[in-house]
Amino acid sequence: MADSYDVIVIGGGPGGYVAAIRAAQLGKSVAVVERDKAGGRCLNYACIPAKTVLHTAELYDHARNSAELGLVVKDASIDWEALGKRRAAVSESLSNGVKMLWEKNKVTVIEGEGSLDADGNVRVGGDVHEAGQVVLATGSVALPIPGVEFGDRVLDTWGAWSLPEQPGKIAVVGAGASGSEIASAYARFGTEVLLIEMLDQILPAEDRDMARVVERVFKKQGIEISTGAPVENVETGGSSVKLTYGEKSAEVDYLFIAGGRAPDVEGLGLDEAKVELGENGKVRVDEYQRTSNPKVYAIGDLVNAKALAHKASEEGVVAVEHAAGEKGAHPVDQNLVCGATFCHPQVASVGLTEAAAKDAGHDVKVGKQKLGGVGGATVYDDKDGMVKLVVDSKYGEILGAHIVGNRACDMIAELVATMALEGGYQELARIVHPHPTISEAIPEAARAVDKWAIHA
Hints:
13 helices, alpha/beta, seven-stranded mixed sheet, 24% strand, five-stranded parallel sheet, globular
């Protein structure tokens, strides 16, 4: 038996590294097993690289299209090599930051592939490390679409963010958060973009009204959108990819698949450790993230419905606090985990869509406020978006909140807090917001529920 630890975390991504640090703060001896880089996929291959490239796309778009704001930039161009270097440098900097935090908190790093044995201890290579508790935090892997394999010109989301050159034309399959971000970035760089979604709307997890707003802006950006048609007949050549979607066909430089992910459970030894999977292929956990093996916890993309970095981090905190017997450990309210999509305009939401609220049997009232109605939107050139509140008509409980706009992913936190503290739309309508800001659209949406918005 190799070294023993109170807590061993398998996976050093946003869920795992946070879990390890919190366990160490609680006085536990902790090890993290990581086969690649500190920070995991999110920091090195997904969230952070994506947002780094999206930030450059935003600045480039401003440089080219801000003449009416008095900003004229001549001969603005993209240095693709410099962009790639910055993307890599940002990830490296943050990865080193995670290492520093582990070192500061005396977390041991074990390099290699981790798996469970029958006793719930952790194998890495030829060593078995005894664990008081184990936290599984291995994240997820990209899924291809049926009949198509990833290859040189058929790439996953990481392939989209790490291309060595800017393509002339791309197709993106899957118009959820990841696919919409890819389409939005490349369109603003000047690449011709085809965005394909098999379901009947882009951003299918979002409220239909908000998806319509984004679709209008995407089309203004030059993105060709196809919904309700699957991709078929994919043929990869030396310099292009041919495909059909519905009754149409296309030939593009690259095909990016952003259609879904699966929990990364291969090789974890779940059967041996008697850790059960649910019908959806994810690890079955209770409200405190504990699996069917009471010694083993699981977090992040491995569990529950949503695959979000911020959800993983909080689940990691809950898991190790529960394992340590902390009285203050509270389960993550999965209904209050907000979604955040960093396309242009941004999309953020929490709770139920209007359709889902009605399907759940609620008597629903809705308040909407276009961002263009508040002064800050004109000042900051952010007039395309909207705030929408879905509320229960009996007591005013906020069932869902939805925002489209350049600052939506920052603005949503206020609405999550209001819902978590059981505030109704009536309270939200009376909260004084600073002027001139985009956030003034939030109380206006609350007032719109009772049809007294001032700037409607």
